[in-house]
Amino acid sequence: MSEKEENLQAMSDGGVVAIVRVESARQAIEVCGAIARGGIKPIEVTMTVPGAIDVIKEFKSAMKDEVLVGAGTVLDTETARAVILAGAEFIVTPTLNLRVIEMCRRYGKIIIAGAFSPTEILTAWEAGADIVKVFPATVGGPQYLQDIRGPLPQINLVPTGGVDLENTPDFIRAGAVAVAVGASLVDKAALSEGKYDLITEKAKRFIEAVKLARAG
Q1: What proportion of the chain, given as a percentage, has pLDDT over 70?
Q2: N or C: which end of the chain has fewer CB within 10 A?
Q3: 11: left (phi over 0), alpha (psi -120 to 50) or beta
Q4: Separation in Å, CA 117 to CA 75, 93, 96, 132, 137
Q5: Spatial separation of the C-alpha atoms in residues 20 and 186, rounded to whole Å
Q6: Coil vs helix vs strand at 37
Q7: 129 within 8 A of 113, measured Cβ to Cβ
Q8: In terms of C-beta density within 10 A (0-12 exposed, 13-18 middle, 19 or more buried), how is residue 162 classed?
Q9: Confidence band (pLDDT; 50, 70, 90) for 158?
Q10: How far apart are CA 27 and CA 209, in angstroms?
């Protein structure tokens, strides 16, 4: 099994991808550490974080192979290449960008491509996306994901946007390979008060929610 395949398996096994979208690089490092302590391995640092590339470099260096550090909100090939060179193991786009998919495949990195309609989802998959991010997931909810998987069961889907502890089990039962969580994981109150242990505890709860849903 290649390193990329192992990373994909780890992402699927854990069932949760954490999204870090905060206001400073230092805050991002603290949040990433808190999430990692909670047991979530794939951690996506969005490019909206100031100094995001440096955050990826620093966190990757500090955590070694303990986590999968990724880059989110990647809009173009230039950014994709920059974050890959910084150490990102997976790239996430908010929309369908075929050139970014191509860039990630060229470097052998996981690409999670954003899409919503059945046509976009299939196009992303056929272009080589490893996982398709259904965004925004709040629009159709778990039922929409289940409906998509009817004719397209071969596609690995990850709902993003509005995923929380309450609906995570429903998305998993609907066939999601994992869920991507941001605001519902990185609590604003905990963040403002520096209570990172609360983020760690929330991470553990998300992992448990996925396990319970898979266990039926």
Answers
A1: 100
A2: C
A3: alpha
A4: 19, 15, 11, 11, 11
A5: 7
A6: helix
A7: yes
A8: middle
A9: very high
A10: 26
pTM over 0.85: yes
Integer Cα distance of 114 and 158 in angstroms: 9
Place of tokens 């395949």: 5
What are the helix and strand counts (H, E) for the chain? 10, 8
What is the set of domains in the chain, with CATH numbers? 3-215 (3.20.20.70)
Cα distance between residue 67 and residue 70, in whole Å: 9
Confidence of residue 187 (pLDDT cuts 50, 70, 90): confident
Residues with Cβ within 8 Å of residue 163, at least 6 apart in sequence: 137, 171, 179, 180, 181, 184
Torsion of CA 78, 117, 184, 19, to 10 degrees: -20
Residue 82 DSSP code: H
| Strand-strand pairing, 179-181 and 157-159 | unpaired
d(CA 39, CA 213): 17
